[in-house]
Amino acid sequence: MTTSGRDRVIDDAARRGIQVEIVERPPAGSLEEAAAGLGLDPSAIVKTLVVKRHDGDFVFALVPGDRQISWAKLRALVGVNKLSMPHQDVALQATGYERGTITPLGSTTAWPVFADERIVGRRIALGAGEHGLSAFVDADGLLDAFGATIADITDELKPR
User: Fold this and answer.
1) What pLDDT sits at residue 27?
2) In 25-108, which ranges are continuous DSSP H helix?
3) Where is the YbaK/aminoacyl-tRNA synthetase-associated domain (predicted)?
């Protein structure tokens, strides 16, 4: 029997002692719309990015919605010369989740977690393993449960 992404998130959170609240996320055309629909500041929506190391392994980077990953900062922290964002099919294979639903909770492989320091001490929303859902968690509990490395790994979003 196949377990849904949502169930994998809930089960893994329970095993790790993390309280998680799964909520339906209204459709949104922007970060600001998504945040408003969830009653959050955009910085409380945390993107879980799958990042590929040069050796073929992966890491998770937890990035506030109103910021972008700083490749230079993350490379220095991970201790490698090269990092990249894998194709969505590779990310699915590495985590068991489709892009837009990715979370370290319930991932098919427990990759190391690197989190931006700006999420510490906050209640955040992140992917919940399925489209149309968000998982609300206490960031500190999540970071502790994963033994996350916490540092400044982001830059301000550049206008498009």
Assistant:
1) 85
2) 31-38, 71-78, 88-95
3) 26-144
